[in-house]
Amino acid sequence: MEENNQMSLTDQEKVRRDKLAKYKELGVDPFGHKFNRTHLISEARKLSEGKTNEQLEANPVYVTLAGRINAIRRMGKASFINIQDKTGKIQGYIGLGIVSEGEYNLFKLADIGDIIGMYGRLMLTRTGELTCRVEKYTHLTKSLRPFPEKYHGLTDVEERYRHRYVDLIVNENAKKNAIMRPKIIREIQKYCDNLGFIEVETSVLSPILGGANARPFITHHNTLDKDFYLRIATELPLKKLLVGGLERVYEIGRLFRNEGMDTTHNPEFTTIELYQAYGDLQDMREFAEGLIRTVAKNVTGSTTLTYDDKTIDVGKPFRWVSMAELVKEATGEDFTKEMSLDEAKAIAKKHNVPVDKLIVSPGQIMNLFFETFCEEKLIQPTFVHTYPIEVSPLTKKSKDPRFVERFELFIDGHEMANAYTELNDPIDQKERFVEQLKAKERGDDEANEMDLDFLEALEYGMPPAGGIGIGIDRLVMLMCNEKSIREVILFPTMKDRK
Question: For the chain, does the N or the C end have fewer beta carbons within 10 angstroms?
Answer without folding.
Answer: C
